[in-house]
Write a structure and sequence with these properties.
Layout lengths: L14 E7 L5 E7 L3 H11 L4 H5 L1 H9 E2 L9 H5 L3 H14 L34 E9 L2 E9 L11
Antiparallel strand pairs: 1-2, 2-3, 4-5
Length: 164
């Protein structure tokens, strides 16, 4: 079997330029790298932790791992990501999730909003100006298929395992 047949299965080394619009309307051209499945699993595990400090840092870890300079150098440390404004963190997190193709469908090209045929808001379309907003990745399993979806909640963060 040729490795090129499976090339699309693996994290790319390409750096992706995205325009991130903040709640105040300002636009920022930023760069992100794709993250491997292990980082998303660690996020899920951290979100399920009983330690609130572990849960509180879960988004910051993904942001710090993905946000980068045009040359691929890290743009910020985990500690810096922990000090982001809530809305900024939410918008950056949306880009990390979108780039990873997490959820239904695939990652949206730069400048396009992602959506789904479900009633839940897409990460980029959700109103993120509310305080208390949290993010979760939900894992579900049906008929031998499993998927991970990003969702927003203003009250709780949930991680679920395979459902019977």
């Amino acid at each position: 079997m040729s490795m090129s047949k499976y090339a699309a299965f693996f994290v790319s080394t390409e750096i992706h330029k995205r325009t991130v619009t903040l709640a105040d309307g300002s636009e920022h051209e930023l760069y992100f790298r794709e993250l491997p499945v292990s980082m998303f699993r660690k996020f899920q595990i951290a979100e399920a932790s009983e330690d609130e400090d572990v849960r509180a840092g879960s988004m910051a870890k993904l942001i710090a791992a993905s946000l980068c300079e045009p040359d691929g150098a890290p743009a910020m440390t985990y500690e810096q990501a922990m000090n982001l404004k809530p809305n900024v963190s939410s918008r950056l997190f949306d880009q990390v999730i979108s780039l990873g193709g997490v959820g239904k469908g695939k990652a949206s090209p730069p400048g396009e909003k992602s959506g789904s045929s479900t009633n839940s808001p897409s990460p980029l379309a959700a109103d993120q100006s509310q305080s208390g907003e949290t993010h979760s990745l939900e894992k579900s399993s049906t008929a031998g298929e499993s998927s991970i979806e990003s969702s927003h909640s203003t009250t709780t963060t949930a991680i679920t395992g395979p459902q019977p």
